[in-house]
Amino acid sequence: MLAGLSSKDLRYLAGALFRDRLSAPFTEAALNRLEIADAKAVVGDLAALAEEQFSARQISRLIEALASERDSLEHPGGGVEIVATGPETEDRARDTAVVIEQLFSEARSRVLVVGFALYGGQRIFKTLADRMDAAPNLDVTCCFDVSRQGNDTTRDADLVDRFADRFVRKEWPGRRLPSIFYDPRGLNAVARERAVLHAKTTVIDGCKAIVTSANPTQAAYTRNIELGVVFNDKDISNLIETHFRGLIRKGFLKPLSLRQIQQST
């Protein structure tokens, strides 16, 4: 049964469900192919949840929650976990997309998302956008790279407006919009003097954080070979968040207005 699995196996199972590598009707043979311990007992638990009309993704979230609860009991001081995207290996590192989904679903007060490339946001940010729409007090801050490419001579303001328009119309699936910030040095007309916002991190409620090579894109979360670390630690998470809040407060990262675009959609 599920309660008998290790937290590592639980998270591996959750990832298989999330990625549609395992779906109803659940069979012992399918679990054996995934090398899940005590497959006969586990398949009974999964079948019972499916009979209650739980989707594979909902079951995945339940299993992730069970794994997190077990970790909190076994490691009350928090801990560090490896997350990965790409071909599976024997160590069964946690799946990047599953971790991001879980972090977004747990958000209660504030979220910080930092990324370089951004594609496929309609799917990537669906859970976070739903949380924002359901919780009016949830504050979401995003820091993204907005850069001039090559010898492009487009005005700075037009490049910023172009990014804002794409974000609202194509990348964000919710009604409420997050606050967006960018590094204006990326727009420098002199290529050798440009800087890019290359960090990739997400911090939830100042108590959990992921630092990863994966950008918020479908490729990075599902196909590329990516690696990251999750910190279930308030001190480290606060340090990461404070760093970016400081960049905003001191004006190194500038706000990007989305309101006018939202009103026109």
Q: Topology of this structure?
A:
Blueprint: H1 7-18, H2 28-33, H3 39-51, H4 56-74, E1 80-85, E2 94-95, H5 96-106, E3 110-115, H6 121-124, H7 126-134, E4 139-144, H8 156-171, E5 179-182, E6 201-204, E7 208-212, H9 218-222, E8 226-231, H10 234-249, E9 254-256, H11 259-264
Parallel strand pairs: 1-2, 3-4, 4-5
Antiparallel strand pairs: 1-8, 3-6, 5-9, 6-7, 7-8
Radius of gyration using CA atoms only: 20 Å
Strand order of the largest sheet: 2-1-8-7-6-3-4-5-9
Fraction in beta strands: 15-25%
**Helical residue percent?**
40-55%
Helix count, DSSP H or I runs of 4 or more residues: 11
Number of domains: 2
Mean of the pLDDT scores?
A: 88
Q: Which CATH architecture of the largest domain?
A: 2-Layer Sandwich
Enumerate the spans where pLDDT stays under 50 for 5 or more consecutive residues. Answer: none
Task: State the fourth-level CATH superfamily of the largest domain.
Answer: Endonuclease Chain A
Indicate the structural class: alpha/beta
Question: What characteristic shape results from the CA principal axes?
Answer: elongated
Describe the oligomeric state of these chains in a short phrase: single chain
Q: Which topology of the largest domain does CATH recognise?
A: Endonuclease, Chain A
Work out the number of β strands: 9
Largest sheet: 9 strands, mixed
CATH class call of the largest domain: Alpha Beta
Order of H and E elements: HHHHEEHEHHEHEEEHEHEH
Distance between the termini: 49 Å
